[in-house]
From TrEMBL:
<feature type="domain" description="TF-B3">
    <location>
        <begin position="92"/>
        <end position="169"/>
    </location>
</feature>
<keyword id="KW-0238">DNA-binding</keyword>
<keyword id="KW-0805">Transcription regulation</keyword>
<dbReference type="Pfam" id="PF02362">
    <property type="entry name" value="B3"/>
</dbReference>
<dbReference type="GO" id="GO:0003677">
    <property type="term" value="F:DNA binding"/>
</dbReference>
<dbReference type="InterPro" id="IPR003340">
    <property type="entry name" value="B3_DNA-bd"/>
</dbReference>
<feature type="domain" description="TF-B3">
    <location>
        <begin position="178"/>
        <end position="252"/>
    </location>
</feature>
<dbReference type="GO" id="GO:0005634">
    <property type="term" value="C:nucleus"/>
</dbReference>
<protein>
    <submittedName>
        <fullName>B3 DNA binding domain-containing protein</fullName>
    </submittedName>
</protein>
<dbReference type="InterPro" id="IPR015300">
    <property type="entry name" value="DNA-bd_pseudobarrel_sf"/>
</dbReference>
<keyword id="KW-0539">Nucleus</keyword>
<keyword id="KW-0804">Transcription</keyword>
<dbReference type="InterPro" id="IPR044837">
    <property type="entry name" value="REM16-like"/>
</dbReference>
């Protein structure tokens, strides 16, 4: 049984499931002779999936009561399963007693395990079974055990007294912390459900813990659903009481700018929103605070040019050739394009905006008449998002507008003429088909008329004979 409260441990390397399976299969082979010598034993354990050790329900039902040999057999095999698991991830073995799987369905956990690895609060702990199905349970710190949700897990897996479970902590407990001043100003002084709304308007319920000023149960699901990574930046905006809109800006690159486009809906001075990194990361050693910012008109060349965002010099985060190109852009407008970026904006986001601005400027310079409307529209949407957070890129958008006018107005006119031509050609085809039909009718009429003429020539002698016939 795997326990997965929140985020993966940062101090352990991921363990290959294949390696675990190989180890487990070796143990399974070594134990094969035990099954042969004890044919009546119906103990089932999925070592290849390194999770539950359990008795066959039919056999276990006959065990009234469980004898010590059955218990020791299940524990022995569970211990061998535990031995096959990666040692860097803590685990323990738990033998199921009647109180665990019937009646009150209360599962006490080893106190030393709880003290070392679980939080000092009542929180939601996620159990992950061998099919990767997740079950939320309520962990009670004072009682060091699982309460609400454990009954559902037990029934779903048909657990019986005498079954042995191996629990492995696959993810350490970690909650999403929120800025204390934001919580004090806008969130309640109690533990409540806070709803997170993503950019597709999908809602996720999370547990807000007032004492911790952070999000607990439900945050893990949101994080996994949106594939959040260390360094990603999130913008939280309080849109209703206990409901926050979340915009995601990826640290891995801003080519699609999916998170930044969401920022277009924010008011820059909105005090009910804040920016946070998904996982706190140390500031680069190359960053330094700026004592003062030189006015752009006093800059003589690129050597005097420093990129300062919120009193922080971020030159070390931007490659030199990008710095030169960015300086040229700023020089063309005689101002720092980034000088009005939102205060408190994530450094990585600011760097990404500057890099993407340079990239789009280069793309505009290099574009050909064969460029698609979608490509140009993407540039414009991206720059529009940057404008919403204070980047001065209006001149780039103006250039895009002119290119759109030059390129697509003539293209649209040409396309309209092509459509008109196609309609005319279709009408011509219809007329030709009608003309062919008329010609066929004329041909048939010619044949019929010729036939009638022949009949008329034969009619005269017959008519004369009939007229002169005797009375």
């Amino acid at each position: 049984m795997a326990i997965g409260p929140q985020s993966k441990p940062s101090d352990t390397s991921p363990v290959s499931a294949l390696d675990v399976k190989k180890k487990a299969l070796e143990i399974k082979k070594n134990m094969a002779h035990k099954k042969t010598t004890n044919p009546k034993s119906k103990v089932n354990f999925d070592l290849s999936r390194n999770l539950i050790v359990s008795y066959d329900p039919k056999t276990a039902a006959l065990a009234k009561p469980l004898n010590s040999q059955s218990k020791s057999s299940a524990i022995e095999r569970a211990n061998e399963v535990q031995a096959s698991l990666p040692s860097e991830l803590p685990s323990f073995v738990k033998l199921m007693l009647p109180s665990h799987v019937t009646g009150c369905f209360w599962l006490g956990l080893p106190k030393n395990f709880c003290d070392a690895h679980l939080p000092k609060d009542d929180v939601t702990v996620v159990l992950v079974d061998e099919d990767d199905q997740e079950y939320n349970t309520k962990y009670l710190d004072r009682k060091t055990g699982l309460s609400g949700g454990w009954r559902g897990f037990s029934i779903a897996h048909k657990l019986l007294a005498g079954d042995a479970l191996v629990f492995q902590l696959i993810e350490q407990w970690k909650m999403k912390g929120l800025p204390k001043n934001f919580c004090d100003a806008h969130l309640p002084k109690d533990d409540v459900t806070v709803v997170l709304v993503d950019e597709d308007d999908q809602e996720y319920n999370t547990k807000y813990l007032d004492r911790k000023t952070g999000l607990s149960g439900g945050w893990r699901g949101f994080s996994i659903a949106h594939k959040l990574l260390a360094g990603d930046a999130l913008v939280f905006q309080l849109i209703e009481q206990w409901k926050m809109k979340v915009y995601i800006v990826r640290a891995s690159g801003l080519n699609e700018i999916d998170g930044a486009l969401g920022l277009m809906n924010l008011v820059p001075c909105d005090m009910n929103s804040y920016v946070t990194e998904y996982v706190d990361s140390p500031v680069s050693e190359g960053l330094r605070f700026s004592q003062s910012v030189i006015e752009f008109k006093d800059i003589k060349g690129v050597d005097d040019f420093n990129i300062v965002v919120d009193n922080l010099v971020i030159d070390s985060e931007i490659p030199k050739h990008f710095q030169i190109k960015y300086y040229d852009l700023c020089r063309s407008q005689n101002m720092y394009l980034h000088e009005n970026l939102l205060k408190g904006l994530n450094v990585k986001l600011a760097v990404g905006i500057i890099l993407e601005t340079v990239t789009i400027a280069d793309a505009i310079r290099a574009c050909k008449v064969t460029i698609t409307r979608d490509d140009i529209a993407t540039w414009d949407k991206t720059l529009m998002a940057f404008e919403e957070v204070g980047m001065k890129v209006g001149f780039l958008r103006a250039r895009i507008g002119k290119l759109m006018g030059l390129l697509f107005e003539s293209k649209e006119l040409l396309e309209a003429k092509r459509t008109e031509q196609m309609k005319a050609e279709e009408e011509m085809r219809v007329i030709k088909e009608k003309l062919c039909g008329v010609r066929e009718v004329i041909k048939n009429l010619d044949v019929e008329m010729e036939t009638l003429k022949l009949k008329g020539q034969k009619l005269e002698p017959v008519f004369h004979e009939e007229a002169n016939a005797p009375w």
